TrEMBL record:
GO molecular function: arginine binding; identical protein binding
Subcellular location: Cytoplasm, Cytosol
Predominant place of localization: cytoplasm
The name this protein goes by in its record: Cytosolic arginine sensor for mTORC1 subunit 1
InterPro entries with a match to the protein in the record: ACT-like_dom_sf, CASTOR1_ACT-like, CASTOR_ACT_dom, CASTOR_fam, CASTOR_mTORC1
Superkingdom classification of source: Eukaryota
BP GO annotations: negative regulation of TORC1 signaling
Oligomeric form and interacting partners: Forms homodimers and heterodimers with CASTOR2. Interacts with the GATOR2 complex which is composed of MIOS, SEC13, SEH1L, WDR24 and WDR59; the interaction is negatively regulated by arginine. Interacts with TM4SF5; the interaction is positively regulated by leucine and is negatively regulated by arginine.
Alphabetical keyword list: Cytoplasm, Phosphoprotein, Ubl conjugation
Ranges of residues in domain Cytosolic arginine sensor for mTORC1 subunit 1/2 ACT-like: 116-199
Cellular component per GO, a single term: cytosol
Length: 269
């Protein structure tokens, strides 16, 4: 419904959403959560089969977006590990490889992915949820933060490995569930009793991937971050955007994360 505009860019692909469930069971507190939870079973196999993904972690769960044209490859890749369902008229219907075999081509061996530079700003972030019935109470503040509080983005140099701060605010409304990522200073502007967070109230640091806009055709960008963090059992939220990818990791583990990613880059040269 949005009118065409010279100020709006639209990717040329149509994307489908994959929601990964573990038989309805939540992981125990000792296990890493977020994108690292599905790194080995979903992220890495899709990268190996040349499937480009957009990742969206929320307060409630994680979603993977894949291009509609890649769906046959996605199903053939994941069918051995997962039961796959599609939604039809509000009902979940089982999907098999035979349902999407038309036009499926066995993928060629994947080339070594490009290892993009990572930047770690000093900004501390919060991952929050808002109860839908309390949203009107913060609507004015939310609109101000989303559209009016921030100046034009400052471009970081392609070789920059660290930033003093970064402007980042993510609002997701998915099936009635609201998830927000905001920096700790912005959080102070909202009524604390209306923002829900985990019982530990942890703060998160960000790793931004890419020295320039990443595009949508390259595969393995999410895996570049997810695989080494999964091996170290480090939780991470991952949010892909039009230009860059962003991983949020627990504040106390940021030094270990940077070291792991630097080692990954050095070994990939």
């Amino acid at each position: 419904d949005l009118p065409p505009s010279e100020f709006m860019q639209v990717a040329d692909s149509t994307w489908l959403v994959l929601s990964v469930l573990s038989n309805g069971r939540e992981p125990s507190g000792s296990q890493a959560t977020g994108v690292t939870k599905i790194a080995r079973s979903v992220i890495a196999p899709l990268a190996e089969h040349h499937v480009s993904v957009l990742m969206l972690s929320t307060y409630q769960t994680d979603f993977i977006l894949v291009r509609e044209r890649d769906l046959p490859v996605v199903i053939h890749t994941l069918a051995g590990e997962f039961d796959i369902y599609k939604e039809e008229s509000g009902e979940c219907v089982s999907v098999t490889c035979d349902d999407v075999s038309n036009g499926f081509l066995k993928p060629k061996p994947a080339a070594s992915p490009t290892l993009h530079p990572v930047q770690s700003p000093q900004t501390r972030f919060c991952v929050l949820a808002v109860a839908p019935d309390t949203l009107p109470a913060i609507a004015t503040m939310l609109i101000d933060v989303l559209f009016y509080s921030h100046g034009p983005p400052k471009e970081a140099g392609a070789g920059s490995q660290d930033l003093d701060s970064i402007t980042f605010f993510s609002f997701s409304l998915i099936e009635g569930y609201i998830s927000i990522v905001m920096d700790a200073e912005t959080q102070k502007r909202f009524p604390s009793n209306l923002l829900l967070t985990s019982s530990t109230r942890e703060l998160w640091r960000m790793v931004r991937i890419g020295g320039q806009p990443l595009g949508f055709d390259e595969c393995g960008i999410v895996a570049q971050i997810a695989e080494p963090l999964a091996a170290a059992d480090i939780s991470a939220y991952y949010i892909s955007t039009f230009n860059f990818d962003h991983a949020l990791v627990p504040e106390e583990g940021i030094d270990e994360v940077i070291q792991l990613l630097q080692q990954r880059q050095e070994s990939g040269r």
